[in-house]
Design goal:
about 425 residues, alpha/beta, EreA/ChaN-like  fold, 2 domains, two-stranded antiparallel ribbon, 16 helices, globular, UCP036794_erythomycin, Emycin_Estase, Hydrolase/PRTase-associated
Length: about 425
């Protein structure tokens, strides 16, 4: 009970009310000095998280010279958005069309009205800027799409490396775009394509200057090659070691972040949109005891701690978009009131209404005890969430700041394909 009383009082003492974007100025000011601002979310299907991140992102771009957004999405689909917002590609009539490039489940993560508002704003903003703000995907899942992008570009440029790319692609053809089939073949039977994709990656890396005749072509080709190699490694490992496959994925996302930053140069300042479980330092959770790392930890270790500013998100109750099983249509689900004893529960107990916390040397110790912190994935069962949806966390060590919404609502996907429950 001591924790309850102390934590409730600490929240009352340090929390700042949040009713409109301008209220977040102290948080944005604190984050503006970092090289990377990591903006989390407690689910992949909550409207308020996307909207709030959008407002923070706009301020960081307009007022603090941040020049790219990197998200937990596939590189090929996000690269289409990047070309659209920079005006490089006039194939798409509007942002809604370009978001249809996100056709791999779960499509709702990026093909939604909230992201549409962001990219249309970004396109309009870029029209007034000499240096355009980019939009990039960090994730590792797009094995086949990335290989197709490599081959298409090499064919269009009559590249001498096209046969090597086709050889790598042909190795995967027997698996009919079924990652699970490849994973079993590689992990259980030892039939893999590792040599082919590593050879391709080495070739693309060594010859990247050969492909700099087109805007961002060398970056696109390099990252798609990296995705191909790391996706093979990820699926190779997925069957036998789930924790290590997680690590492969997050290390890959940091690699991509590095490549984008290197491409932009010394002025690179990035805003990362990912789930709390990726951007909140793994060392402040039970992930650490399981040998797992994440972007929050890896970026803090790679750069000095002042260069990374991580913002966690959470809510007390509401609705969310998720599925009951991997690959099935999404549903609009109820998010129950936070479990008693969780961080979200104490935030609610301290006062109703949206609020945020900034952690610093003076108050960090008040939020450093381990406490359950809700995390909802793309697969969710509200009735069982107390059994596995709360991550033991030392909040002030996991994040630099925390934004709390009292009540939230589900995202608004562009493509309607759901069941409301």
């Amino acid at each position: 009970m001591v924790l309850t009383k102390n934590l409730t009082e600490s929240i009352k003492k340090h929390a700042l009310p949040f009713q409109c974007p301008d209220d977040l100025y102290p948080l944005i000011h604190a984050a503006s000095h970092a090289k990377y601002v990591l903006l989390g979310e407690a689910s992949h299907g909550t409207s308020e998280y996307y909207k709030t991140r959008t407002e923070i992102t706009k301020k960081l771009i307009q007022e603090n010279n941040f020049n790219f957004i990197a998200v937990e999405g596939d590189w090929p689909s996000c690269y289409e958005v990047n070309r659209y917002v920079k005006g490089y590609d006039h194939t798409y009539k509007n942002g809604k069309e370009v978001l249809e490039a996100f056709n791999r489940w779960p499509t709702w993560m990026w093909s939604n009205e909230e992201v549409l508002e962001l990219i249309e704003w970004l396109k309009k903003y870029n029209e007034t800027q000499e240096v355009k703000v980019g939009f990039y995907g960090l994730d590792v899942y797009s094995l086949w799409e990335s290989m197709e992008a490599i081959i298409a570009y090499l064919e269009n440029t009559n590249s001498p490396h096209i046969e090597k790319a086709k050889k790598a692609f042909e190795c995967f053809e027997p698996f009919h775009r079924q990652a699970e089939q490849y994973a079993v073949s590689a992990a259980i039977y030892g039939e893999d394509c590792m040599n082919e994709v590593l050879d391709l990656l080495r070739t693309m890396t060594a010859n990247k200057k050969y492909y700099e005749n087109d805007t961002e072509a060398s970056l696109n080709l390099l990252v798609n090659s990296l995705v191909t190699a790391n996706a093979e490694f990820y699926y190779h490992t997925m069957i036998t070691n789930d924790n290590e496959s997680w690590n492969i994925r997050d290390r890959h996302m940091v690699q991509v972040l590095d490549h984008v930053s290197e491409y932009i140069g010394e002025s690179a300042k990035g805003i990362v949109w990912e789930h709390n479980t990726h951007i909140g330092d793994a060392r402040a959770t039970d992930m650490y005891s399981q040998g797992m790392v994440n972007i929050g930890q890896l970026t803090r270790e790679k750069y000095n701690i002042e260069s990374v500013f991580a913002v966690g998100f959470g809510s007390y109750k509401g609705t969310v978009i998720a599925s009951t099983k991997w690959g099935t249509p999404y549903e609009v689900m109820n998010v129950p009131e936070a479990t008693p004893g969780s961080f979200e529960y104490y935030l609610h107990q301290a006062s109703s209404g949206d609020k945020f916390l900034l952690f610093n040397e003076d108050n960090q110790h008040e939020f450093s005890e381990t406490i359950g912190h809700r995390a909802i994935g793309v697969v969710y069962h509200p009735e069982y969430e107390h059994m596995g949806n709360y991550v033991p966390s030392r909040i002030s060590q996991r994040y630099n700041a925390f934004i709390y919404h009292e009540t939230t609502e589900a995202l608004h996907p562009i493509t309607v394909n759901h069941v409301t429950v």
